[in-house]
Amino acid sequence: MANIFNEKQTETKPVTLNLVNVLNTSQFTVTSWNAQGTSRWNLDFKKAVNFLGTIESDFYCLQEIPNAKGKLPIMERLRLPHSVIPDEDNAHSFNNSIILSKIPIVKSGEIVFPYNPHPYERVLWTDIQIADHTIRIYNCHFKIHRAGIAERLHQLEIVLQHAKNAPSRAIICGDMNTTIPASGWRRRVVEWFHEEPDTSMIVQGKYIGEDERYLFLSKAAAAGFKEADTSLSATWRIYNTPWELFNLKLDWLLYRNLEIQDFKLGPYFSDHRPLIATCRI
Fold it and tell me: Count of alpha carbons within 13 Å of 132, Cβ hemisphere only?
């Protein structure tokens, strides 16, 4: 946890489209989805937006959206007029994150991990006002290549520490790339594929042999957050196949001081399933 406050934080200027829509209810829906760049798999982004439109969410936390600002006109059909986009967003950005909101954004920012400045592995956050309450939403995309349990757990700790100064009602969601299964041949395959060093399986001097998802769940719970998907189901498969290899849960929707009225996993469109939670204040 050393140097946890050394991460760069910048206020992002919300981009507002020519739409007007205000949410006047204590119930709202949040969707988190990794679109997997869409261009990587030659997906038609307009079709991806049509897919999102079938979910009817009040807030979308999307990961791996290249040239997000350039795609805003396409996303107007979602009728979510307010957005937060990373500072470093351009036509060459492969997989930036973005937050789309039905209601005005009160405040927003960006957490840049001190040891990993890449724009596609940062955290966007925004404060929104619903009824008389301010709610903080974090959109995360954690490191995967040459990183393991130790690195991602530290990234989660940084976000949880940041959330200590956030409004009490908060959501932390996104693709956190919790790829590590329990010790065994499956773990060795994953370590080889993502070039994850053995040292990244050691936390506070102890080798972690359990599935990474359980360590994440425990760390979040200690900070007052619960996971909306209590089944901890797989959220990733090899694209365009039925194979949920190793039953990996890469995507999370953690919440604090909110009620989950309904939660579901959407169908695969990219190689990730969307997480859809209807919350009540």
Answer: 0
Q: Where are the alpha helices (DSSP H) in the chain?
A: 45-53, 68-75, 149-163, 185-193, 212-222
Can you tell me the distance from the alpha carbon of 48 to that of 56, in angstroms, rounded to the nearest whole number? 13
Could you give the domains of the chain? 12-280 (3.60.10.10)
Backbone angles phi, psi at 48, to 5 degrees: -65, -40
Give the residue ranges of DSSP H helices in 204-245. 212-222
Question: How far apart, in Å, are the Cα atoms of 230 and each of 50, 121, 227, 252, 272?
Answer: 28, 26, 6, 11, 18
Reported residue count of the chain is 281
- Residues 21 and 79 sit within 8 Å (Cβ to Cβ): yes
CA distances from residue 175 to 19, 28, 33, 104, 133 in whole angstroms, order as listed = 29, 21, 8, 25, 26
232: tokens are 């901890």
Nearest of 35, 41, 36, 249 to residue 152 by alpha carbon = 249
Task: Say if residues 241 and 206 touch (Cβ distance below 8 Å).
Answer: no
pTM of the model: 0.88
Q: Which helix (H) or strand (E) holds 242?
A: none
pLDDT in tens, 223-270: 999 999 988 999 988 877 888 888 999 999 999 999 999 999 999 888
Task: Give tens-digit pLDDT for 25-61.
Answer: 789 999 999 887 545 555 677 788 888 888 889 999 9
Nearest to 67, CA basis, from 84, 43, 85, 52: 85
In this structure, what DSSP letter does residue 201 have? G
Asked if residues 95 and 110 have their Cβ atoms less than 8 Å apart, the reply is: no
- Per the DSSP assignment, residues forming a β-bridge with 61 are 32, 99
Count of other CB atoms within 10 angstroms of residue 51: 17
CB 26 within 8 A of CB 269: no
